Fold:
Amino acid sequence: MQIKTSLSIAFTLIFLTTYSQEKLLALTIDDDLKENANAVVRLYDNLIEVKAHNRLLHRSKRIVTVLSEAGNSDIGAVVHYDNNINIRKLEAVIYNAFGKEIKKVKKKEFEDVSAVSGGTLYSDSRIKYLNHTPINYPYTVVLEKEIEYKSTAFVPGWRPIEGFYVSTENASYKIINTSGVDLKVKTTNFENYGIEEIGEFDYLAKNLKAIKGEAYAPAFKTYAPFLRVALTKFVMEGVDGVNTNWTDFGKWMNDKLVSDTQELPQAVKDEVKFLTKNETTDMEKAKLIYKYMQDKTRYISVQVGIGGWKPMLASDVDRLGYGDCKALTNYTKALLDEVNVESYYTVIYGDDNLRNIDKEFSATEGNHVILAIPNEEDYVWLECTSQTSPFGYNANFTDDRDALVITPEGGKIIHTKVYETKGNLQTTNAKVNLDENGSISAQVQIASEGTQYDHYNRIEDEDEKGKSLYYKEYFDNINNLEVLAIALDNNKEDIIFTEKVDVAASKYASKVGGRILFAPNMFNKKTYAPPRYKNRKMAFEVDRGYTDVDEYEITLPETLEIEALMKPVSIKNEFGEYSVSIEKKSDNLLVYKRTLIMNKGQYKKEDYSGFRDFHLKIVKHDKSKIALKRIN
Amino acid sequence: MRKAVVIVFILISSIGFSQNYKFGKVSKEELMEKSYAEDPEADAVVLYKKETIAYEYKSGDGFRQVREVQERIKIYNKEGFGWATKKVRLYDRSSSKSEDFLNLSAYTYTLEDGKVKKTKIKKESIFEEKNNKYWATKTFTMPNVKEGCVIEFRYRIESPYIQIDDIDLQYTIPIKKLDINVKIPEFFVFNKLQNPKAIYFPKIEDTQVNRKETLVSKSRTSGGMGKINSNRDYSDWEFKEFKTVVDETNVPALKEESFVKELDIYRAKLVWEYAAYNGPNREIKNYSTSWEQVSKTINESESFGGQLGKTKYFESDVNALLDGVDDPIKKVALIYDFVRSKIKWNKYVGYRVNDGVKKAYKDRVGNVAEINLMLVAMLRHAGLNASPVLLSTRSNGIPLFPTTSGFNYVIAAIEVPNDIVLLDGVNTYGAPNILLEKTINWQGRIVRKQGTSAWIDLTPKKKSKTISFMNVNIADDLSISGKIKKHLTDYLALNYRERYHDSKTETIVSNYEKDKGNIEITNLDVKNKKELSKPINYTYDFKLDNAIEEIGDKLYISPLLFLASEENPFKQETRIYPIDFIYPTYSKYAVYLKIPEGYVVESLPKNTKVQFNGTEGEFSYIIREQGETIQVSVITDLNKTLILPEEYLEFKKFFEMSHEKQAEKIVLKKQ
Structure:
């Protein structure tokens, strides 16, 4: 689903200063910098020379001391390149802990491999990397690079702290702009880390401690320092562009990348007009067109040159029946245009984490493209790379984030659909028969909506055996589970996925000293609680809320009577709500009810233990059992 | 007579519909088909696969291997779309050493308005990727793919190599008709075998056929009066060919299953070994004829045996290391640790050295062969009866027939009377006789100094043990505090070291706390993390809430607390492939639970013993009340390491019973 990301990854960097031999000694590192660090960036000097709107040079000198095995990748000896990126210099020297040279690696000795990966079928980007087997830790690598870019849509930025578990002793970043083209620079979180601006486009960072990852922490970029830069006039793979703000950047995308690619063959034009001739509303037409596109295409990603940014021709998509996110979105747009439904090509970060396009800083961003259809005051978002997604369903990948919507008038930043807690609903109903040996048989029905609907594609494609195993895993709290019947209903119109599953399990309830212990929460037992931290360092957040409602009718055999039921529980706090109860409807009919609401939210680090505690309580009450006794 | 045959033929074929497998002859019936009768859940099916291998002869150039592949694939639904993309891996070095991919022709057939539409692949959908120094990938993806379509393609690979790659006889989708045809000139002697681990074996037919080539030679003759005539002489060259044919219908799909790390080891395939060259001019070159011969060939090569004789490069270091040490066991330990601390593995596998032992020693980096051949040489230098052991890693398959490529790894062995000690210098956290899992693959071939060789069993016999002691105290508020002492040996110790060698205490604690409810672990103390020949011993204290259920006025406790494995990992009803535990295990939990004040025991779980296949697996649960404590001992003893599909159900039951037992509860009541 990606747009070409090689350059954004090559968020790598530059230099200048001479360094003292001291940087080669692992022993001289300050203890503060070693704490939580797998590697220490001793020095990283970056110099960006913008020579022209179509030429920039990135020179860097980098010294990294690797403290342990997990830090090997932090040496950063990886360079992406393609036809518009020329590696002018690449050289590494490796030193042992005492600063003694172990080996020198020249450019031609770097491994050279293709960078085709993930879901991409083919791309022209390649990687050179240092293949080094460390003998001992710590060791130090000095890396010198000179990389020339003819494509300037991405200008290498700067991350003074490069990621988790790596500290920075000294790093600098400087731009010399002799191109006559205006630059835009944005720094984020610099003030919190004492990063100095020592001149025009000239920055210096010192002694930045390593950051440790924590569960539920906000995205790294929200608190770590980073710098972004863009040229107001640039070249992208041979195509000239402008970028002073999102409006003109978006306009450029529209005019140069999108608008000339939408011509369709006459036969297709006729076909879609005929297809939608009876529909009166835009949404009804769009639904038919979306289905038409889904049935006609599949996702294939090929990224070559400007093709990493510019969609394939809509007519080619029509002919070949495949394309990547750009191609399929653009094709859908072309089809919609034909039936006079307005829609916009939209650049976004597709990720289950909520990741925004930066509203305030226009630059080449995003890794995915979707389609926006204006619908009254709002938009419907179409994921065009899926052959199975319901119309307008974009949960868990492109929901709740700022996206760049490309209109003929220019780019606009618009927030995508938010899936609300109460709509992310899973309702589980069951009718259960318990026998006097503790065995159960049950008819279970699970209806999922909103973000929870999404799991349909994990089951639907499985064969019978796979489906049966899926439910054995899903109800993994029940040993000896037999799956007797499965009926699935995927209602794409209302976006509800309903699973009807008949199951049985011998000895589900345990016999203990003449009584039967029965856990009434059979079908939605929470077992996970967030990890414990002695000192929680970071704030935390829950990206998406959800609601689970369970109700089970349990029929007891005549031969058993109730000895003890559990007390009802009801908890409500800022993190959510949880309630369970079991009610005796008659001598042999019990009704178990459970509601769990997990709120979306952002919280202070001080509240983390309360958050964990809330989870632990749910885990505990979900395990609760009742005692039944044989009637004599 | 003839009539009868025709009638029978028509009858049979009319059950399905007549099928024409000629390239381009895709039928409407094939396009209309909604599912595959033999396997209705298949997302796609290979209607026809043809693969021919032959050696084409060109005067002057000699033989060149030509592999022609033709496939017709029916795609029933969207999940089958992946089959519309094909990747072909090609050996790619200098031009004379590379494989050529040629003559690709490919079409997608769809049914549109009742008519068959044919869409041809074009250049835009064909890609060549240079993966690295050795390999390239040709990828093509079909145009106009829709549910129900049929794709068909053919291509040709020309190779300068005589060796034939494995021929897959099974895909992860069914193959309706499989047609393999291999013809090898008599000069190239091959051994071949079907993968013995497969569960499907097609019939293979072998015959001999005659072949005739016309040789062209140029000669010059004097035509008299100073005139030179240039002539072409033509002569016939006749020789035999070995022909191998597979002609099967309804090849079942290779299905995935849990606990199978590499599905490919169960794939039906034909494996070929180029054994000898038996040239037309009677020159004979043996590559592999017997295991003895293979071992000898390897041993005599400079990149293997030749490395064992070199000692100068390490002599002074090793002499210093062993100075004053007489005990052979100590010598082994010293040399093994010395090699591992000195030379780091560069992730390259193989039994042949790359740069050689000397350079590896100097650079302190080496491949498997450099490290382990050096280890053997040092052990020999120290007077020990050490030898290299050739083996095949799990992913390389088991060594089938005498072949130098059947092996891909080498370790070291020391032979002492009645015993053998195996060492692998690549296994950073291993101890003697504790190998990396990937190298424990049936048997290895020990190559002794004299050049003789023999098989040795690599399967671990010794049990890897985990022994846990736990003291449990219950407070008035029903929270639990306790202490755990754990002892891990052999492979279980290796696993622990591999997982936690680089971890801080805090990380380990956090891992232990995972999924154990409201627990807090303190005072973790791990012993022998670095003393590799000793067991891992660790202790910690814990506090645990919510582990006791209070129902009515009674308390219910599973005495193993979080040590119990309550979920049976074996969920399938049947199995296709075996489950391989690799090494036998023994686990024991001993729990001492103090009865809280004011409570007495109302009931205890019953003592139980369950067996699997006699004593191949044994589970016992013993519980008793002794004064103020309840003592529980739970032992799981698993001698059998390979569970065959036919044994699976019984094995699953064995596990079920042991899991149920571990979940059983003690009931305490108020006094």
Remarks:
- The first strand of chain B starts at residue 44 and ends at 58.
- Residues 648-663 of chain B form the longest helix (16 residues).
- Confidence is low (pLDDT under 50) at residues 1-16 of chain B.
- Chain B touches chain A through 61 residues (CB under 8 Å).
